[in-house]
Hints:
By secondary structure, this protein is an alpha+beta fold.
Amino acid sequence: MISLYGSGVNCVAIYYPAPIADVKAFASVPASSQYSPLMRELQRYFLWGFDGTPSAMTNKGQRLLVNTIELMLP
């Protein structure tokens, strides 16, 4: 498990109990693997379900955010 933020932040996670065409979950909520706060639909949309700022992120969290942005670039 990777900690994205140094302290708790609000999070939105989508219920994702089974694979859906063109949707990919990149993480799950520790309490339930059926909910994901990081999801991509097609190559166009990405749910970053956290409301913390980048300055509140851990180094690994910041790298994940940058990698996610690069993943979504055309």
